[in-house]
Amino acid sequence: MNQEASDRVGPLDDEYHWLSQMNKAANVALLEAGIIDMATARNNARTIAALDLAMLRPGVVRTGDYQQIEPQLIAIGGIEVSTLHCGRSRVDIVATSRRLLLRPAILGALDVLNAARQALMDLGQRHKRSLLPVYTQGRQSAGVPVGHYISAYTAALDVEFDNLKQAYDTVNQSPLGAGAVATSSFPLNRQRLSDLLGFACVIENSLFANELSIIGAGAKVVSAATSAAIIVGTLASDLESQYARTTPWFTIAEGPGLTGTSSSMPHKVNPTLLNHVRQQASVLIGTAMTYTLRSHNVPHGMPDSKRSEPNLAMAQYTQLMNDVARLVRHLDFDEAVARQEVDAEYSATPELADVLQQLHNVPFHVGHHFASALVRYGKANGWRPAHFPYDVARSLYADSARQAGILPAVLPLDEDAFKTSLSSANLVARAACLGGPQPAEVDRMMTAGLARIAADAAWLTKQRDALAAASALLDTAFASTQ
């Protein structure tokens, strides 16, 4: 095993472990197909078990390279142990090994992705009705409840769960027994090998199995990692932009590994973990791009796409989502500061135009023209929406109505109705569309999000149970050859 791999995996879930599992499965399948007799199978089994024990000794180099392992097997069990390699090649062994290593790595990444989603949901539930500003092109576009804001990110991460789940389904297919590229004359039961190693199915075409499917499988893994990292980077950047304010509405609780201080500026509390998350997301995208660039424009049969970037990407993905969950669990929300920012902007004025059309049949263009004039006038005079003079609003409306030929040119809203229409809380309450910020929809989306997290956790349990059952099947079948 190379140094990079040894840094990533433990002694019982490394390339040697999975090579040994493949050898055990091969011994069973060879015996069942009549390619070897029982005496040979027993010798093979004793040899595999003996080498497994030897590989547990301190300082032993555990490698997944069959060319390095076969001499050690022969040294223990004699030349007849080489029958384990009938119908196989290093090519299909490597293609299978990559998948066997990726499966638990993907499931582990999905576990922490679920934890990050749950942490977001917990935050959203705590402040579900509180308003905060959201932005387009750097300017406030609306004030929405925290529950709506959080549901947006959990919905995005729901998609990322699906992306990585689809990558898992692609990885969880067996190329073993495909030989170099064209199988062999040994009647090796490839389906049996697949079942013993817990794969969902066999990749049938042997050339595709060994040399092409690995490209697509790796690409799916790094693509899922890339899109998830972009979502995380977006969240981190949105939170980080608030630190330019004297008082952000989201802040990280101070503590070791969470925040840092300046060596010369006592007033500064730096968002250390937030910075780290954003940088990790970029590093993960870099790993994914390395795989993509390394694998493109290369003829099949080359080793370029068979390297460990997808495995490394899953390790980085897991760490990233762990840190996202930790970050979210330590976020404090200042409702008063957020509401002050919402109330400082005229982001509810689209609702003013809507109310005029819906309740008073004022053409939308006229209502929008009036709302735009109101925004310009209010900002020019330094007025917040709640303080906009009603008499000035009536005058502005009269100008807009007369220009459009609408008479009488009288604002059809009394002062209370006018003030209410400029409130973000009113905009939220009046929202009527599927997926909007109104309380009923926020509640529905958050309930659905929590149910989705629970369903995905159940799916993960099902996959692990299937792998455990396959491992038990292999143990039993291998024991019968001893």
Automatic annotation (TrEMBL):
Coiled coil: none annotated. The keyword Oxidoreductase does not apply. Pathway: Amino-acid biosynthesis; L-arginine biosynthesis; L-arginine from L-ornithine and carbamoyl phosphate: step 3/3. InterPro entries: Argininosuccinate_lyase (IPR009049), Fumarase/histidase_N (IPR024083), Fumarate_lyase_fam (IPR000362), Fumarate_lyase_N (IPR022761), L-Aspartase-like (IPR008948). GO terms for biological process: L-arginine biosynthetic process via ornithine. One of its GO terms (molecular function) is argininosuccinate lyase activity. It catalyses: 2-(N(omega)-L-arginino)succinate = fumarate + L-arginine. This is argininosuccinate lyase. It comes from Pigmentiphaga litoralis.
